[in-house]
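Lecture notes, unit on protein representations.

Consider one protein chain, 65 amino acids long.
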Amino acid sequence: KPAGARIINGQNAQPHSWPWQISLRQGRRFHLCGGALISDRWVVTASHCIHDDLNPGSYMVVVGK
């Protein structure tokens, strides 16, 4: 099923309406997980989103889109 089929009676979010929401990415393109910005330097996400074999510098955080 397409991802949209799992949301019933939902609404599209307006751009920039969730400024604390982040996309944790591997590199510039590959979305791994969502998370929440909890300060100007810290993000909280699920532990299964972080892989021990990846260099921390290989992650990218996209905020508030």
